[in-house]
Amino acid sequence: MEIKKIVMGSDHAGFGLKQKVKAHLESRGIEVIDVGTDTPESCNYTIYADALCKVIQSGEASLGILVCGTGIGMSMAANKHAGIRAAACENTFSARMTRMHNDANVLCFGERVIGYGLACDMVDLFIDTPFEGGRHQARVDDINALDKR
Ligand code: RB5
After folding, report:
1. pLDDT on residue 106
2. Which pLDDT score is estimated for 1?
3. Are 92 and 118 within 8 A, CB to CB?
4. If exposure means fewest CB atoms within 10 Å of the residue's CB, which of 21, 46, 79, 138 is most exposed?
5. What's the pTM?
6. What's the CA-to-centroid distance between 87 and ligand 1, angstroms?
7. Could you give the CA distance from residue 106 to residue 85 in angstroms, rounded to a whole number?
8. Atom 8, ligand 1: which residue's CA is nearest?
């Protein structure tokens, strides 16, 4: 499935990288729904993780990208939402594998950890790699069943 729309969010620590990755996605012809933050002023990442997850839950976008200082806080907050499988990644292998095996729908990374070039490579792989299904489907179904507990 070709991805035409992506939702993005960040806190202040990920704001600069979010803006740059957003421009990269737009240069690929992908529409970006930006849930904020819109300034480098200090804020809580939970607000933007929540806003992004609501967009995915509504069906308006199928994939999202969250940027904070490390990517960790964003992934923790996002994974509290039903139907969200968020992966904090620091390399291209993980960004690709989390689509293939986990059917991750949110990629998280940290502006204090990785640079712009690596972020764009990770994002491109995340968007362009399909879920493998097969033996991984039952495992993803198990993850989704945890939402109901
Ligand atoms: C903000 O200082 C920082 O804690 C946040 O961006 C993130 O790295 C948390 O996981």
Report:
1. 99
2. 78
3. yes
4. 138
5. 0.98
6. 16
7. 6
8. 69
Ligand 1 midpoint to CA 104 (Å): 21
Our separate counts of H helices and E strands in the chain read 6, 5
**Residues taking part in catalysis:** 68, 101
Q: Is the CB–ligand 1 distance for residue 45 below 6 Å?
A: yes
Q: What is the 3-state secondary structure (H, E, C) of 52-113?
A: HHHHHHHCCCCCEEEEECCCHHHHHHHCCCCCCCEEECCCHHHHHHHHHCCCCCEEEEECCC
For tokens 């809580």, what's the residue? 44
Atom 10, ligand 1: residue with shortest CA distance: 73
10-residue mean pLDDT profile of the chain (149 residues): values are 95 98 98 98 98 98 98 98 98 98 98 98 98 98 95
